[in-house]
């Protein structure tokens, strides 16, 4: 009686030669998919030992990065209106993963808005608003202390 050889399948990720298991991925790629939603996610640690978050392409990442820059980077052109006025970001939001968890996805045409422009960026003060409507919530800029919508009336 001839011996039947079992075919061993290989992970379907290009360049991977490991034995495939679930979803035709090897254990490593399946674990990345389960954890990060992407089987090809590169998960490294920075020099300080913290894992890289893998959210660079998330819709809210650019918003988070710009928010942090406005508040903490004196080299930014708009630092005076944010960090210079002591507007800060809630410490929990210094990790982009917590920001994304609290704020969720940013839809196209929306950006972060603070209910009170004199308060910090925090879950109770921030929400997503259509960019076209944000002009309604600006601080007064002229000598008469009229906001844009008062001039429009």
Question: Could you characterize what this model shows?
Answer:
This protein is α+β, with helices and mostly antiparallel strands and 153 residues long. The protein has two domains: 9-39, no CATH class; 61-152, no CATH class. The protein contains four helices and two strands; from the N terminus they run αααββα. The protein has helices spanning 27-36, 61-72, 96-103, 148-152; strands at residues 110-114, 126-130. The chain has a two-stranded antiparallel sheet with strand order 1-2. It is elongated and about 90 Å long. The mean pLDDT is 79.
Keywords:
single chain; about 150 residues; alpha+beta; 2 domains; 4 helices; 2 strands; about 25% helix
Can you describe this structure in just a few lines?
This protein has 4 helices and 2 strands; from the N terminus they run αααββα. It is an alpha+beta fold and 153 residues long.
SSE layout and pairing:
Elements: H1 27-36, H2 61-72, H3 96-103, E1 110-114, E2 126-130, H4 148-152
Antiparallel strand pairs: 1-2
Quick one: how many beta strands? 2
Count of helical stretches? 4
Low-confidence stretches: none
Q: In total, how many domains does the architecture comprise?
A: 2
């Amino acid at each position: 009686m001839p011996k039947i050889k079992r075919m061993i399948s290989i992970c379907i990720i290009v360049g991977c030669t490991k034995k495939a298991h679930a979803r035709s991925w090897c254990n490593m790629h399946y674990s990345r998919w389960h954890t990060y939603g992407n089987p090809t996610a590169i998960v490294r640690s920075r020099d300080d030992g913290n894992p890289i978050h893998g959210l660079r392409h998330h819709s809210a990442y650019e918003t988070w990065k710009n928010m942090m820059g406005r508040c903490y980077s004196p080299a930014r052109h708009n630092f005076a209106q944010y960090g210079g006025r002591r507007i800060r970001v809630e410490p929990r939001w210094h990790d982009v993963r917590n920001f994304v968890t609290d704020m969720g996805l940013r839809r196209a045409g929306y950006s972060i808005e603070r209910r009170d422009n004199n308060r910090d960026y925090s879950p109770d003060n921030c929400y997503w608003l259509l960019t076209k409507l944000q002009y309604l919530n600006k601080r007064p800029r002229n000598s008469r202390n009229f906001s844009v919508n008062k001039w429009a009336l």
